[in-house]
Amino acid sequence: MTETVTVQVITDTSTEADELEVLTLALRDELLRLEVASVDHVIDPQAPPDSKGGLLGGWLAVHLGPEALRRVFSTVAAWATRANRTVELSIDGDVLKLSGVDASTQTRIVDEWFARHAGPAQATPPTGP
């Protein structure tokens, strides 16, 4: 079974497109170091099929097996903390936003969210990347 986790780097109005691209590529590089099937940029569904661009800025689709799900979440949470950014992760429309809470609250929130999506082999709490 392969899960797809959608990750979005959240920005504010002062973030330039170039900065968002650098941030997204940095997160993508970290995720590719994990044992995931792939990390792809998300294509804008409104973009014309023959367009060369069409990428949604700040969005990544992480394709992984169930064993990698916990590592992806831990890596994204650590990256968001280091980069001082807000990140949204979603599976099947269930969204988790990582931002602005202390570590213990974030761990509890992630554990509750993760329990809804993880199989029995992944019931352990998150660990650092």
Task: Describe this entry's structure for a reader.
The chain contains three helices and five strands. A hairpin with a 2-residue loop joins strand 4 (86-91) and strand 5. Strands 2-3-1-4-5 form a five-stranded antiparallel β-sheet. Helix 1 runs antiparallel to helix 2 (69-83). It is globular and about 40 Å long. It has one domain: 2-Layer Sandwich (Alpha-Beta Plaits), CATH 3.30.70. The protein has 129 residues and is of the alpha+beta class.
Topology:
Blueprint: E1 3-10, H1 17-32, E2 38-43, E3 55-64, H2 69-83, E4 86-91, E5 94-98, H3 103-115
Antiparallel strand pairs: 1-3, 1-4, 2-3, 4-5
Helix pairs in contact: 1-2
CATH topology: Alpha-Beta Plaits
Give helix and strand order, one letter per element, not per position: EHEEHEEH
CATH class: Alpha Beta
Strand order of the largest sheet: 2-3-1-4-5
Mean of residue pLDDT values: 77
State the main characteristics.
5-stranded antiparallel sheet, alpha+beta, Alpha-Beta Plaits, disordered C terminus, 129 residues
Short description:
The protein contains three helices and five strands. It has helices at residues 17-32, 69-83, 103-115; strands at 3-10, 38-43, 55-64, 86-91, 94-98.
